[in-house]
Amino acid sequence: MVIDITGLSSNQATLSRGKVNEQPAAGNKPATGTAPASQPASNVSISDTAQAIQKTIDSSLTDDGVNADRVAELKAAIEDGSYQVDALSTAKGLLQIETQLG
């Protein structure tokens, strides 16, 4: 449940939370001892955007983002001394980061 408390004072927000907390939880029997009234079934639909976001989140949790083949290739090049640092590209990257940081 989402409660929009924008513009409420802290006292009003506390009172609103109290009213929500006083409501019986779903599945609890009513305090009066009478049978609950039948309620229509609820339908929930998830938008395509929400589904795409969830799919992205799920895939990011399973994918660590590391290209193991590339890491192995770079390690081998460093070990055998064939890895060459491109000083110009490194300097440009550092300047770009510095510019972004202000």
What is the average per-residue confidence, as pLDDT, rounded to a whole number? 78
- The number of helices is 4
Note the gap between the termini.
41 Å
Q: Estimate what percentage of residues fall within beta strands.
A: under 5%
Q: How would you describe the shape?
A: elongated
Which structural class is indicated by helix and strand composition? mainly alpha
SSE ordering: HHHH
Which residue ranges are poorly predicted, with pLDDT under 50 across at least 5 consecutive positions?
none
Number of strands: 0
Radius of gyration: 28 Å
Summarize the main sheet: none
Estimate the helix proportion, in percent: 40-55%
Q: Main traits of this protein?
A:
4 helices, 55% helix, elongated, mainly alpha, 102 residues
Describe this entry's structure for a reader.
The chain is mainly α and 102 residues long. The chain has four helices and no strands. It has helices at 10-22, 48-62, 68-80, 87-101. The longest helix is centred in the middle third of the chain and has 15 residues, at 48-62. The mean pLDDT is 78.
Give me a quick take on this structure.
This protein is mainly α. The protein is 55% helix and 0% strand. The model has no long low-confidence stretch (mean pLDDT 78).
